[in-house]
Description:
The chain is α+β, with helices and mostly antiparallel strands.
Amino acid sequence: MSINIKSKREIELMRESNRLLGLMHLEMEKMIRPGLPTSELDQFARDYAAKHDCGLSFLNYEGYPAALCVSVNEEVVHGIPTKEKVLHEGDIVALDAGLIYKGYHSDAARTYGVGHISDELQKLIDETRNSFFEGIKYAKAGNHLFDISNAIDAYISQFGYGIVRDLVGHGVGTSLHEDPQIPNFRQKRRGPVLQAGMVLAIEPMINLGRGDVEWLDDDWTVVASDGSPSAHYENSILITDGDPEILSLV
């Protein structure tokens, strides 16, 4: 495994890529409402990228047909936005997106409630986000990669939620997915030592029920096998000698 260490120039480009993505997420959050066709979110992402001279990390990636992933309720990740796929009161929706700025990718995901949602679903969203912050307490030079994984698992397990094991976080840079893979569940080994200059996409994917998933016939959309709702939270972070820098949170 070879984990890229970014130069100062590369880090500056990744900061800008992720800053723009963070702002895009803030604008998309404002759009979330009952009755919204998910295709409108996709079109917004396309227009936003064009306005800011960015490419879209997901569009045509291994054949993926959209600018971002819009995953509703039991859809864990890679939900494809369409005109027919409309948000309804009480849904939860995860938006996963990436931009390419001067050759450098950014990657971040957020989960939102649509209109009024149940306390149970709001807690799922909140604790999924909280698990990210628990994990990155260990994301500093000199610690081990799987310290992050173990911290996420330890936090989530107290709630009885299912941690998705078939999908993991990853490095990010000139490619959307770089080494290393970053599980959100406990590992027996500690993994490689973290070094300043690594950029990692940490992304807990947590189901209200079991963590088992399956792929739909479109070969993209991943759903909870038991039909339970799922939440997703992700940021690209920079490893430093101290606390990590969250690049995609603005």
